Amino acid sequence: MANRWVLKHLMQLPRDVPRTPAAHALALKLVTQMDLLRLKSIARLHARGLPAEVGWTDLLQEAFARVLDGSRKPPEGLSMVAFLAGVMRSIRAHYCRRARRAAARLPQMLAELDLTGAEDAEPGDPTPDPERSLIAMQQLAEIHRLFVGDPRALQVIEGLFEGWSPEQIRARYDMSKTEYDSTRRRMRRALLKEGLRWGSHES
To answer: CA–CA separation, 145 vs 59, rounded Å?
Structure first.
């Protein structure tokens, strides 16, 4: 929740002020136009090598949002530019960790969905290279987009990504075995239809 000072000033902003976190911060005089230009350049640098879905503007706006909601507070004596640059670096590190995790988890996820032969499914490399991590993150994003309208499928994806067993997924989301198996088959058919198959041929 935003701290009281920020919330008070947000309430006083003119209606025509653009409602982006960066615009809010600028209107509140947390940063200057020159600060914003520097931060945009820093965001572009930090966005290099991240999945295509994560642009430099996403890093910038997320950093400002965390300051405005009070989840990140600048320490005394540190400039806002230096502080926000550090927040963006932290956000980038989060995406990189998630990408490495995707590369490590994806083979097991696909094996559970019968998209790779069980005999061919090998555990992912715990320290995959950046290129493979990025590819895995993009594949995972494609899978999420495909099932955006299917809550049960998204629950299965999230559970498999966390490394949970089918039993743990069913217990966590109050899903019967029949419903889990039906969801799994539905996902497999949809993925094969979209050509998102790695490994074995369809049986």
So the answer is: 21
What pTM does this model have?
A: 0.58
CA 186, distance to chain mean position in Å, is 24
pLDDT tens digits for the chain (203 residues)? 344 434 444 444 445 545 788 888 888 888 899 999 999 999 999 888 776 667 898 899 999 999 888 888 888 888 999 999 999 999 988 888 877 777 777 777 778 877 654 334 444 555 556 667 777 777 777 888 888 889 999 999 888 888 888 999 999 999 999 999 999 999 988 888 877 544 333 43
The span from the CA of 134 to the CA of 18, in Å, is 33
Q: Check if the beta carbon of residue 157 is closer than 8 Å to that of residue 143.
A: yes
